[in-house]
TrEMBL record, chain A:
Domain AP complex mu/sigma subunit: 1-110
Main subcellular localisation: membrane
Assembly and binders: Adaptor protein complex 4 (AP-4) is a heterotetramer composed of two large adaptins (epsilon-type subunit AP4E1 and beta-type subunit AP4B1), a medium adaptin (mu-type subunit AP4M1) and a small adaptin (sigma-type AP4S1).
Species of provenance: Anolis carolinensis
Name under which the protein is recorded: AP complex subunit sigma
Keywords carried by this UniProt record: Membrane, Protein transport, Transport
Keyword Protein transport recorded: yes
A Pfam family hit: Clat_adaptor_s
Function, in words: Component of the adaptor protein complex 4 (AP-4). Adaptor protein complexes are vesicle coat components involved both in vesicle formation and cargo selection. They control the vesicular transport of proteins in different trafficking pathways. AP-4 forms a non clathrin-associated coat on vesicles departing the trans-Golgi network (TGN) and may be involved in the targeting of proteins from the trans-Golgi network (TGN) to the endosomal-lysosomal system.
Compartments, as annotated in UniProt: Endomembrane system
InterPro entries: AP_complex_ssu (IPR016635), AP_mu_sigma_su (IPR022775), Longin-like_dom_sf (IPR011012)
BP terms from Gene Ontology: intracellular protein transport; vesicle-mediated transport
TrEMBL record, chain B:
UniProt-recorded name of the protein: AP-2 complex subunit alpha
Subunit structure: Adaptor protein complex 2 (AP-2) is a heterotetramer composed of two large adaptins (alpha-type subunit AP2A1 or AP2A2 and beta-type subunit AP2B1), a medium adaptin (mu-type subunit AP2M1) and a small adaptin (sigma-type subunit AP2S1).
An example Gene Ontology biological process: clathrin-dependent endocytosis
Lineage: Eukaryota, Metazoa, Chordata, Craniata, Vertebrata
Similarity field: Belongs to the adaptor complexes large subunit family.
Recorded name of the encoding gene: AP2A2
Polar residues bias (residue ranges): 591-607
Domain Clathrin adaptor alpha/beta/gamma-adaptin appendage Ig-like subdomain: 656-765
C-alpha cells in the first residue's frame, strides 16, 4: 500500500503532498523534513530504497526535485520506482516539458479534479499503476 | 428585512475558525427561500455543541449528497458525478461513509451498465472503505462477479479489481479462490508476446508491467494452483525468467527496471509456492547474477529476495553457494541498507556447515557497523552461536567477543543466556572461568564483561584457582580493581561474588572481609549495596564452614525455558523478521493466509543436575547432553490440559534411572519441571526437590504432599504456595528409614495454573538401596558369609534379558551407584561382578551380598542376592534387575 506521495525540492519546500492514510498535520511537516534530509544525504552509489521506521521510502531525483513515495511491505519496490518515472513522463507530456513551477502552480488545480487527471493519462494510453486521487 | 448574520454574535462561545464561523458569515436565509436544506444545515451546524458533532453533521450531509448522486434518480447516474462522488467517499473514508455505502458500492461495481471509469473508481473506493472498516463490507454474490472483472478489457478496471481482490482475499480466501485460474490465464496472455492482450499498454517494450506485478502479487495469496492451472503458471514463470536472460530490447534503464520489477515479483511468487525445485534453482541463479550487478538497486533487491529463498529447503543449498559474494558485499558495499540485507541473508543461510564462518564475519562487521543496527546484529550472533554450537567453548568465546566489540548493545537477555548455558553445562565451566579471567585482564573492559566475569568466577573460580596465575587472591584483586568503575547493579553482583569467594577460598576471607568492612561499603548511599555489604560481612563472620557452604552452594542448573533472545529479536524487527530455516518451516505449516502462529515444539529433557555437592553420595552416571539446542530458542506455548491424578507418563523411566544415582530431573511436562538432589547417610536421608515453573504465569496454591509407607518416615518442610513464572523453588524433605520397605513414596502436587487445577503425581525415588553402606571385604570373608546365607528364603535369584548393551565399566558404575562396594578379585570368574553392603534401618542392620553374572553371547544376566531378610533380598533383586 502506498502511504504517501511527496514532491519536495532541495530546499525542503514541499511542492506536492498526498497522504493515503490519516496523519496529523504537524506530523506531516516533520515527516517531510526528515525524509528530504535522508534523501539529500544519499550518494550515487547508494540504492533508491531507504528503510525508514517501519516502512520504506522509494525516491527518485529529477533536477532539483525529489519525488518520494512511502510504501509498506505489500508493494514491489521496483514497480513503484518505475511508477514514479511514469508519473513524471505523463506530467511531462501534459505540460510539455514540465518544470517545478508547473508542479507548484498548475498541478494542484489538476489534482483537485481527479477525473481530469485520469482522463489526461488515459489520453496517452498509459494508465498509471494506481489512481493518484484515491491511492491504492 | 433581516439583519445580516455577520453582525450577530455567534450563539455560543467557540474558538474562531472551522465551519461554524463560516456558517456565521453566510447571509441570512429566511424560511421562505427555496434553499431550505441549506438553511436547515446551517442552523444544525450552529447548534452543534462540539467540533466532533460538527464533523458528524457535515459527514451526514455529504452522505446525503452522495446518495442522491449515486443511487437515487436516473439523471444522477452521470459518470462524472458518480466518479466524483466515489472519490470523495474514498478520500474521506470514515466509518460513517463505510456504514452508509459499503452495501451499495459492490452493486455499482458489478452492474452491467456501469461505465468502465466508474467501475474503476468503485473498486478503489470499496478497497479504501474495506481498509478502514473491514467488518462493514459484507461478502455476497458480488464477489464472484468481481472475480470476472479480471478478464475485463479496460486496463483501469482490471488493475483496480486485482488490487481489490488481493486485499479482500487475505481475510476471505474462499470467496475469491476462483480468481487464481483467471489471474494465471490473464498473466499468461500478457506475458507471452504472441498475444495481443493489452498490447497498447506497453511501457518501454514491457507489456503492462504494473498489472503483471499485481497479478503475481494476487497469486501469492493462495497456495500453488490445481494441476490444470499449474502447468500454465509454470510456463508463464519460465517465460519471465527466460526474458531476463535474453538481450534487452532497449538500452533505456526504464526498460530493464520494468522488466526487473516483474521478474522480482515472479521470483517472489516462486519462493512463496516453494514447490518447483527447477524454478527455485533458476530463481536462485538469477538472483546470484544480480548480486554482482552494477546497479545498487538490483543488488539490494537481490539480497532481499535471497533471504526469503534461503529458508526454502529446495534452494537452501543453492543459496549457500553464494556465501563468498555475500560476505564480500558486507565488506565493500557503500550503502548501509545493502549491508544490512547482506547481514540478514547471512543469518538466513546459516546452518551447521557454515556457522563458524558466518559468525566470524558478522563479528568482523560488527566492529565497524552503524550504531543503529548493532543491537540487532548482536542478537542475531547470539542466536546463531547458541543454535549451532557443537563445541560450547566456541559459544563462550563468541559471546565474550560480542561483549568486547559491542558491549553497550549486548542486552541483558544475551548475557543472562551465556551464564545459563555455562551453568547448565559442566564441560565448559572451566573454560569459561579461564576465558573470562583472561578477558578481564584487558585494561578497559566493558561493564557487561565485568558482570559476566564476576558471576562466572563466583561460581567456578575454584576451577582455575590451582594455577598460580589465577590464584584466588589474584582473581579477587582483578575483580575489585574494576569495582569502582561500575554501576550499582554491577557492584551488587560483585559483592555477591565476594561472599562466594569467602566460601570457595577461605584463605582470602580476611582480605574480603576488610573490603566489606570499609566505610564505602557499609555506609554506601545505595541501600542495596549497603544491605549486601552488611549482611555478607555478618554472614562471613558468624557462619560455620558448613552453613556457609550450604548457603553459597553452586547454583543449580536452570530449568530449560524459552529463550528470550528470539522473542526480543522478533519484537525489534516486527512481523518481517528474517528467520532461518527451521523457524520458517514452522511458520509455513501454519495458516496459509498470513496468520502466523508458532507451532508447539517439545523441549528436550534437560541435562541432569550434576552438582558438585557436599561430598554426599557420589554421582557416578554421566548424562547424555541435550540432543538439540534448537528447542532452547523457540517459544513454547504451554498446553493447559490438566494431568490426571495417576502417575505422570514417563515417570517410570525416570524413576528407574534414579535407583543408582541421586541427582537429576525426575519429571518434566510443559508446565513444570521437578529436579532432585539427595544425600543419604546410614538410615537417614535428605532430599532437595526443585520445582521449576516453565511458564510465564504463576502457579497458585502450589502444595506438594508426600505419601509413603509406615516404614519410611518423612518430614516435608513447607514453603510459599505461590510459584512465580519462570522461577524455581526448592523444598527439603527429611527421610528416616524405620524398617525395610517395598513401595516408593509418591509425591503428589496440586496447583492452579491459568484458572485450571493441575495435578501431578510422581514416584519419588527413595528406595531401599539408598540406605546402603558399602562394605569392603576379602574373598575369604565374602564366601564365608555367602555360605552362611544359604537358606532359600535368604536368597533371591533372577535371570533376565539385558535391556542395555553389556558394558563392563557402566555396569561397575551402576553397582557402585546402587550402594554396594564393588569387590575385585573375589569371584573366580573375572567377568562376574560381586558386591557387598549393609542396609541401615532404624530397627536393624541387614547385611547383603550380591553377585551378577553376565552372559555376553546370550545378552542375559543372572543376578543373585543373599541377605538375612527375605523381603530385602526380594526388593533389592527387583531394583537391581531393572538397571541392566
Amino acid at each position: 500500500m502506498i502511504k504517501f506521495f511527496l514532491m519536495v525540492n532541495k530546499q525542503g519546500q514541499t511542492r506536492l503532498s498526498r497522504y493515503y492514510e490519516y496523519m496529523d498535520l504537524h506530523k506531516r511537516t516533520i515527516l517531510e523534513t526528515e525524509v528530504i534530509k535522508q534523501c539529500l544525504s544519499r550518494s550515487k552509489e547508494q540504492c533508491s530504497f531507504i528503510e525508514y521506521k517501519d516502512f520504506k521510502l522509494v525516491y527518485r531525483q529529477y533536477a532539483a526535485l525529489f519525488i518520494v513515495v512511502g510504501i509498506n511491505e505489500t508493494e514491489n519496490e521496483m514497480a513503484v520506482y518505475e511508477l514514479i518515472h511514469n508519473f513524471v513522463e505523463v506530467l511531462d507530456k501534459y505540460f510539455s516539458r514540465v518544470s517545478e513551477l508547473d508542479v507548484s502552480f498548475l498541478f494542484n488545480q489538476l489534482m483537485k479534479s481527479s477525473c481530469c487527471l485520469r482522463w489526461a493519462c488515459n489520453g496517452f494510453k498509459v494508465v498509471p499503476y494506481f489512481d493518484l486521487a484515491v491511492g491504492s | 428585512f433581516s439583519p445580516s448574520l455577520a453582525s450577530r454574535p455567534p450563539s455560543r462561545l467557540r474558538p474562531a475558525g472551522g465551519l461554524g464561523s463560516f456558517a456565521a458569515k453566510m447571509p441570512a436565509v429566511s424560511k421562505g427561500d427555496g434553499m431550505r436544506g441549506l438553511a436547515v444545515f446551517i442552523s444544525d451546524i450552529r447548534n452543534c455543541k462540539s467540533k466532533e458533532a460538527e464533523i458528524k453533521r457535515i459527514n451526514k450531509e455529504l452522505g446525503y449528497l452522495f446518495i442522491s448522486v449515486l443511487v437515487n434518480s436516473n439523471t444522477s447516474r452521470n459518470p462524472t458525478f458518480m466518479g466524483l462522488a466515489l472519490h470523495c467517499i474514498a478520500n474521506v473514508g470514515s466509518r460513517e461513509m463505510a456504514e452508509a455505502f459499503a452495501g451499495e458500492i459492490p452493486k455499482i461495481l458489478v452492474a452491467g451498465d456501469t461505465m468502465d471509469s466508474v467501475k474503476q473508481s468503485a473498486a478503489l473506493c470499496l478497497l479504501r472503505l474495506y481498509r478502514t472498516s473491514p467488518d462493514l463490507v459484507p461478502m455476497g454474490d458480488w464477489t464472484s462477479r468481481v472475480v470476472h472483472l479480471l478478464n475485463d478489457q479496460h486496463l483501469g478496471v482490471v488493475t483496480a479489481a486485482t488490487s481489490l481482490i488481493t486485499t479482500l482475499a487475505q481475510k476471505n480466501p474462499d470467496e475469491f479462490k476462483t480468481s487464481v485460474s483467471l489471474a494465471v490465464s490473464r498473466l499468461s496472455r500478457i506475458v507471452t508476446s504472441a498475444s495481443t492482450d493489452l498490447q497498447d499498454y506497453t511501457y518501454y517494450f514491457v507489456p503492462a508491467p504494473w498489472l503483471s506485478v499485481k497479478l503475481l502479487r494476487l497469486l501469492q495469496c493462495y497456495p500453488p494452483p490445481d494441476p490444470s492451472a499449474r502447468g500454465r503458471l509454470t510456463e508463464c514463470l519460465e517465460t519471465i525468467l527466460n526474458k531476463a536472460q535474453e538481450p534487452p530490447k532497449s538500452k533505456k534503464v526504464q526498460h530493464s527496471n520494468a522488466k526487473n520489477a516483474v521478474l522480482f515479483e515472479a521470483i517472489s511468487l516462486i519462493i512463496h509456492h516453494d514447490s518447483e525445485p527447477n524454478l527455485l534453482v533458476r530463481a536462485c541463479n538469477q538472483l546470484g547474477q544480480f548480486l554482482q550487478h552494477r546497479e545498487t538497486n538490483l543488488r539490494y533487491l537481490a539480497l532481499e529476495s535471497m533471504c526469503t529463498l534461503a529458508s526454502s529447503e529446495f534452494s537452501h543449498e543453492a543459496v549457500k553457494t553464494h556465501i563468498e559474494t555475500v560476505i564480500n558485499a558486507l565488506k565493500t558495499e557503500r550503502d548501509v541498507s545493502v549491508r544490512q540485507r547482506a547481514v540478514d541473508l547471512l543469518y538466513a543461510m546459516c546452518d551447521r556447515s557454515n556457522a563458524q564462518q558466518i559468525v566470524a564475519e558478522m563479528l568482523n562487521y560488527l566492529e565497524t557497523a552503524d550504531y543503529s543496527i548493532r543491537e540487532e546484529i548482536v542478537l542475531k550472533v547470539a542466536i546463531l552461536a547458541e543454535k549451532y554450537a557443537v563445541d560450547y567453548t566456541w559459544y563462550v568465546d563468541t559471546i565474550l567477543n560480542l561483549i568486547r566489540i559491542a558491549g553497550d548493545y549486548v542486552s541483558e537477555e544475551v548475557w543472562y543466556r551465556v551464564i545459563q548455558i555455562v551453568i547448565n553445562r559442566d564441560d565448559v565451566q572451566g573454560y569459561a572461568a579461564k576465558t573470562v579471567f583472561e578477558a578481564l585482564q584487558a585494561p578497559a573492559c566493558h561493564e557487561n564483561l565485568v558482570k559476566v566475569g564476576g558471576y562466572i568466577l563466583g561460581e567456578f573460580g575454584n576451577l582455575i584457582a590451582g594455577d598460580p596465575r589465577s590464584s584466588p587472591l589474584i582473581q579477587f584483586n582483578l575483580l575489585h580493581s574494576k569495582f569502582h568503575l561500575c554501576s550499582v547493579p554491577t557492584r551488587a553482583l560483585l559483592l555477591s561474588t565476594y561472599i562466594k569467594f569467602v566460601n570457595l577460598f577461605p584463605e582470602i576471607k580476611t582480605t574480603i572481609q576488610d573490603v566489606l568492612r570499609s566505610d564505602s561499603q557499609l555506609k554506601n548511599a545505595d541501600v542495596e549495596l549497603q544491605q549486601r555489604a552488611v549482611e555478607y560481612l555478618r554472614l562471613s563472620t558468624i557462619a560455620s564452614t558448613d552453613i556457609l557452604a550450604t548457603v553459597l552452594e553452586e547454583m543449580p542448573p536452570f530449568p530449560e525455558r524459552e529463550s528470550s533472545i528470539l522473542a526480543k529479536l522478533k519484537k525489534k524487527k516486527g512481523p518481517n523478521t528474517v528467520t532461518d530455516l527451521e523457524e520458517t518451516k514452522k511458520e509455513r505449516n501454519s495458516d496459509m493466509n498470513g496468520s502466523t502462529e508458532a507451532t508447539l515444539v517439545n523441549s528436550t529433557p534437560s541435562p541432569s543436575a550434576d552438582l558438585l555437592g557436599l561430598g554426599a553420595a557420589p554421582v557416578t552416571n554421566s548424562f547424555p547432553p541435550p540432543s538439540s539446542s534448537g528447542s532452547l530458542l523457540v517459544d513454547v506455548f504451554s498446553d493447559t490440559s490438566a494431568n490426571p491424578a495417576s502417575l505422570a507418563p514417563g515417570s517410570e523411566d525416570n524413576f528407574a534411572r534414579f535407583v543408582c544415582k541421586n541427582n537429576g530431573v525426575l519429571f518434566e511436562n510443559q508446565l513444570l519441571q521437578i529436579g532432585l538432589k539427595s544425600e543419604f547417610r546410614q538410615n537417614l536421608g535428605r532430599m532437595f526437590i526443585f520445582y521449576g515453573n516453565k511458564t510465564s504465569t504463576q502457579f497458585l496454591n502450589f502444595s506438594p504432599t508426600l505419601i509413603c509407607s509406615e516404614d519410611l518416615q518423612s518430614n516435608i518442610l513447607s514453603f510459599d504456595p505461590t510459584v512465580e513464572g519462570g522461577a524455581q523453588v526448592q523444598q527439603i524433605v527429611n527421610i528416616e528409614c524405620i524398617s525395610d520397605f517395598m513401595e516408593a513414596p509418591v509425591l503428589n502436587i496440586q496447583f492452579r495454573y491459568g484458572g485450571a487445577l493441575q495435578n501431578v503425581s510422581v514416584k519419588l525415588p527413595i528406595t531401599l538401596n539408598k540406605f546402603f553402606q558399602p562394605t569392603e571385604m576379602g574373598s575369604q570373608d565374602f564366601f564365608q558369609r555367602w555360605k552362611q546365607l544359604s537358606s532359600p528364603q535368604q536368597e533371591m535369584q533372577n535371570i533376565f534379558k539385558a535391556n542395555h548393551p553389556l558394558d563392563t565399566e557402566i555396569t561397575k558404575a551402576k553397582i557402585i551407584g546402587f550402594g554396594t562396594a564393588l569387590l575385585e578379585d573375589v569371584d573366580p570368574n573375572p567377568a562376574n561382578f560381586v558386591g557387598a553392603g549393609i542396609i541401615h534401618t532404624k530397627s536393624s542392620q541387614i547385611g547383603c551380598l550380591m553377585r551378577l553374572e553376565p552372559n555376553l553371547q546370550a545378552q542375559m544376566y543372572r543376578l543373585t542376592l543373599r541377605t538375612s531378610k527375605e523381603t530385602v533380598s526380594r526388593r533389592l533383586c527387583e531394583l537391581l534387575s531393572e538397571q541392566f
